[in-house]
Structure of Glycosyltransferase family 4 protein:
Amino acid sequence: MKIFVTGLRGFPDVPGGVERHCEELYPRIAAMGHEVVVAVRAPYQTYPEGQWKGVVFESIDSPTSTRFEAITHTCKAMFAARRHKPDIVHIHAIGPSLMVPVGRLLGMRVVSTHHGHDYNRDKWGGFAKRMLKLGERLGCKFSNRVIVISESIRDALARMYNCRRTTVIPNGVTVRPRLDSTTYLQSLGVEPGKYVLAVSRLVPEKGLHDLVAAFDKISGDIKLVIAGDSDHDSQYRRNLFRTAEENERLVMPGYVRGDDLAELYSHARLFVLPSYHEGLPIVALEAMSYGLPLLLSDIVPNKDVGLPERYYYPVGDVDALAQGIGRMLGEEHEEGAFEQMVREKYDWDLIARQTEQVYREVAGG
């Protein structure tokens, strides 16, 4: 089969949950013998070659405006897809799903993936929220099949739009061995086992302001490392970095990838995800794969991960978050407690096979 993919900025090493998802998924689909073409956004795709691990890139210009880049790029990608004559067009995320009817009108079979209710994010104004909800509705109505990353999203779509053409295929994670090296930690001035880790984009819905406020209530020589940045500059981002400059216990190295990120996961004492909005959090799955204890906000997507109740706290409650961090730091934890769960439920090879099965069913009519 030939599969044409759009709705993402690009990969490899382009930040974002959808981008991470596609970076893991499509080399595996290509390795199954399928031809995979991914439409990437020219301003973000810095990889110099035209293909990577069997995936062919088609670079398409797009604006870098947060409001218009996704829809403009996906619209152009639909007409580029028609030239390729694919068996399947796969559109990721509800904003780009505004273009699902266009793909169908052009005679193509379209699969869409719902990665989360993006209109709940604080960064969007009223018009943008309405367009995202419209994309969600059109994706449900016109896609040949909708892949959802969690049971809660499937239930929501059934309730809101009577959408029944859904298949649950979660995000995944690749289990990697812990690293013994500490070179990157030394460069940051942190010691193994003496820091709490968060990995996140620097946007309000990730709740990092709650985490910083809660950590101020934690005494001792332990530090807080927040690995991540934002796609666009904002007052929120500047405030976080300014706080880090004024507080030696807060370390903010920006985006971290590859072995440096693996080092951070390998030696952290605790992983915290204080989000107000998620899809199915890949960073939490990664932390589980490294055997870390976790503390997550109790929003539905985080609860979908399936951890025991003691690993959650009420979202937005800074005091409860501080108490949870203190409790988790004071306990002994079984190493690798969640690794088997990750291997059984969130394995990328299994996810690739499940996705391929959806393609075969849709392509077969």
